[in-house]
Amino acid sequence: MSDKRCDMLIDYFNGQLTDEEAKQFEEHLETCESCQAELDEWRSLTEDLPYLSEPVEPDTEMKGRVLSSIFEEEEGTSTDTGNKEQTVEREENMNEPALFQPKKKRNWAVWGLAAALAASLIGNAAFLTQWPATTTTEPEEEVVIDNLEQALTLQNPEGGEASGRASMVANNGEAQLVVQAEQLEPLSGDEAYQVWLLEEGQPVRAGTFVPNEEGTGAVTYPMDELQDGNWDTLAITKEPGPDSETPQGDIVLAAEI
Amino acid sequence: MSTQDEELYRRVLHKDKDALETLYDKYEKLLFSFSYKMTNNHGLSEEVVQDVFMKLWTQKGTYDSSKGKFSSWLLTIARNAAVDLMRKKKDTPYELEERDALQTNEPSVEEMYEWKEEATAVREAMRVLNDNQQRAIQLFYFDAKSHREIAEQLGVPLGTVKGRIRMALKHLQTEMNRREGGKERHE
């Protein structure tokens, strides 16, 4: 258990590792019970520490700025709210021992996916209009429109009512995977639909959503969350919970990339 | 209190904006204050808060009630976001602000009941720890320093840092448990 890599635990927890080091450490973590136990222990022992913070009053307009930028982003446009440096989204999951996962560098290899999608999707232009590329030097306050890079149609391999679309969208230079689906079966309990990208049968999570009462749902997922991959398939499965690490349920929609 | 949070979370999963706003109102100040304690910077703290609610809204993370309190989950996301931002800003030093600048001394808002209660327990427990243990917790948890920096600042060998952190945290926990006695945690 006195693996040298165990010494990286503090730097992992505190985000001090390079991406490469963090990846190595995560591999180690999968098999090292003592590091897993230590991380769990830190998590539970530090749970109350944030309450040591002295109360600080945010300025009164913060709420408006934060919520409007969140809702605007969701609607596919974003205005400049002063927080130009959006932090990159990453998965936060209490099931994972990893408390900190360093950001992946923007991964231009994912544009390979866009190119591959393009090849398979000619004729599918009905779904979204392709906007002209916007320049990156937007004046402040100007609305930046997402650029649709590619789209693909999702169907149930077994047949059925459900249908969906997946598209690759660029917003301010961030690549986003946008998945929408209709006429999905209703869920019960904690069930959720999950999106997966597959490479030779190996799935990687790419978003979770719960459809509305009409069976329509959507999710966006930042592509720089994902590691390199030559994705060949996109699939949506119905999962018993929103946080399956690997698909447990049946595929309800899929498309070849 | 937790069931109320869980219900709101469930509604957020169904894209209920009012539910997100309710959670925002409830946790804005706690998250902001915690982020400020870590980053010492109002701008970064706002970014952290935005990041947390963005994750919640876009469902980048999933909360599982069997794994702990909703508030703890939010605070974990906040810490990760703060650590992330601090790392990002390391090369372009941001302005450290006067700590007392916008501090208030009246945390007596109703919705801060939970915070106050937690704060009293953890503050009292913290006071029992010796200076070195308190510093270890500050450097490790709030400053999110590297292993090496923690060793240097505590003046101890690298190999003993983990043990010291564990001792300090365990001591704190023991003191908190002792204070709470058999009292049920309110969540």
TrEMBL record, chain A:
Presence of keyword Transmembrane: yes
Subcellular location: Cell membrane; Membrane
Record keywords, A-Z: Cell membrane, Membrane, Transmembrane, Transmembrane helix
Main location: membrane
Gene Ontology BP annotations: regulation of translation
Single annotated GO MF: sigma factor antagonist activity
Domain of life where this protein originates: Bacteria
InterPro entries: Anti-sigma-K/W_factor, Anti_sigma_zinc_sf, RskA_C, Znf_put
Chain intervals for the UniProt region annotation (Disordered): 70-96
Biased composition (Basic and acidic residues): 82-93
Transmembrane segments: 108-128
Topological relation to the membrane, as annotated: Single-pass membrane protein
A Pfam family that the UniProt record links to this protein: RskA_C
GO cellular component, one term: plasma membrane
Domain Putative zinc-finger, residue spans: 7-36
Anti-sigma K factor RskA C-terminal domain ranges (all copies): 111-251
Membership in a protein family: Belongs to the zinc-associated anti-sigma factor (ZAS) superfamily. Anti-sigma-W factor family.
Protein name listed in UniProt: Anti-sigma-W factor RsiW
Organism of derivation: Salimicrobium halophilum
Automatic annotation (TrEMBL), chain B:
All copies of domain RNA polymerase sigma factor 70 region 4 type, residue ranges: 121-172
Biological processes annotated in GO: DNA-templated transcription initiation
InterPro entries according to UniProt: RNA_pol_sigma-70-like (IPR039425), RNA_pol_sigma-70_dom (IPR014284), RNA_pol_sigma70_r2 (IPR007627), RNA_pol_sigma70_r4_t2 (IPR013249), RNA_pol_sigma_r2 (IPR013325), RNA_pol_sigma_r3/r4-like (IPR013324), WH-like_DNA-bd_sf (IPR036388)
A Pfam family of this chain: Sigma70_r4_2
Keywords associated with the record: Sigma factor, Transcription, Transcription regulation
TM stretches of this protein: none
Gene3D superfamilies: 1.10.1740.10, Winged helix-like DNA-binding domain superfamily/Winged helix DNA-binding domain (1.10.10.10)
NCBIfam families in UniProt: sigma70-ECF
Protein name in UniProt: RNA polymerase sigma-70 factor, ECF subfamily
Organism per entry: Salimicrobium halophilum
Lineage: Bacteria, Bacillati, Bacillota, Bacilli, Bacillales
